[in-house]
Design goal:
Blueprint (H helix, E strand, L loop, with lengths): L1 H36 L5 E7 L2 E7 L2 E3 L4 E2 L6 E2 L3 H15 L9 H4 L5 H4 L4 H5 L21 H9 L3 H8 L16 H15 L3 H13 L5 E2 L13 E4 L2 E4 L11 E3 L1 H10 L8 H7 L7 E2 L2 E4 L13 E8 L2 E8 L4 E7 L1 E2 L5 H12 L9 E2 H12 L1 H13 L4 E2 L2 H14 L3 H14 L4 H13 L3 H14 L4 H12 L2
Parallel strand pairs: 7-15, 16-17
Antiparallel strand pairs: 1-2, 1-14, 3-4, 5-9, 6-9, 7-8, 10-11, 11-12, 12-13, 13-14
Helix pairs in contact: 1-12, 2-8, 2-9, 7-8, 13-14, 15-16, 15-17, 16-17, 17-18, 17-19, 18-19
Length: about 500
Amino acid sequence: MRKYFYCLFILCCYTSNNLNAQSKAGHIEKLMNQYAANDQFNGVVLIAEKGKVIYQKAFGVADYEWNIKNTTDTKFEIASITKTVTALMVMQLAERGKIDLNGHISDYLKDFPQETGSKITITHLLTHSSGLQTDIADFPSSGNNFPDIAAKINEDFLSISEQVSLIAKRPLLFEPGTNFNYSSDGYTVLGRIIEIVCNKTYEEVLDSLIIKPLGINQTGYKDHFTIIGKRAVGYAETWLGYKRGRPFGIAPSGGMFSTAGDLLKWEQALYTDKIITQPSKEIIFRKTPFVTGNGWKVNENFFNTKSSDSIKIVKCTGGLPGFTALVVRFLKDNKTIILLENIRQMTYRHDEIAGEIGNILYNKPYTLPKKSLAKEMLKTLQSSGKEQAMNLYKSFKKNSSTWYLNENEVNSIGYFLLYNLGKKDAALEFLKMNTMEFPNSANAFDSLGEAYMENGDSKNAIENYKKSIELNPGNDNAKKMIEKLTSNK
């Protein structure tokens, strides 16, 4: 009888846990369906608890030209998540005595300038405190517009060694170890050091140290020539729709592709000693004074609530023209959130999405996403004119339950109308609206001042620049514009 009761108890516990997982999956499904319906997510989402997938689904399109849908085994470029893998390989080689974390670049790369190479340690490179610059191409944060050098890097198909030779010529931003600057260049240098100490290519080392041991066969280091099956095409969102994302150079800082399933295998391996030992993991996941290190960001308080309610997470992100990626790890409870997209959205939403999924995983209230009013107004402006677009805004004021208005989006559309489409009157209407909705934003009034100036209305331009300075006395641009406008009178 006692044995029967024990089995019944175990069955009830299993059923309860299973129903709980099903309930969470249902809420996540509702959340992600809404993001997809709003054109705010296009890719694959995977959620796991203790390594078991409780929700996985593909949304949207992998290739718009052929109308091929994303699937759960679509391969995405994972961009800077590659840095976490590079860091893992460095730690593996450190455990084997091939790399000294306190060693310097010049200990490994003899052709790197001694003046800087003798100052920068491996730890500096891992924690973005080396003083090396951001990226050879210095691409802007929007991820959609790139200078000529970025194209040159791609066209020349530069090797890691050739990239490092360019990096070595650039001056340091600060003395190593004294500050923080997120540096893809630093991880490219680490990739070259890996090649030197192993006497193999970065791709060969990646294959032997990470891919084969973990059996993640849908993962690899991309190149410009190999045909890769089920590989998503990358797109960039613009105010006129989607366009192909510009190809970008491959490097140990952001050159890998993978699937959500393979990323889960890799992430779960970090709970074991299969790749690196516990002391190395403690180094990788320690909180640093420089915000992020070893490819990961550490956040002690995921829900931003009282300290007793804090949940420690680590996360890694990636972004390239056409791709964004996020892996969030709840270390204590072994919960995982993986988001992969092949559209570089103009508004970054992965942290927002992960936050709502995190709320669901911990049985907290969550919020369904709203549609972008600014985007809808722009569409209406293009199809039906300015008056109809502003009528849409008036209806929003009466009922905002399904719409949101974002200051940066409105500001960006205002500039797009002003400079790209030459619709100065419409730009003024959008930027006026921004100051009404965000009356404490110095930037909103600065932008409206610029629109008035472009329309030849110096009086209103000066008035709005002055308002911007009231809100932000340090706005030197507004001061210069006022001086320019008054001197022209």
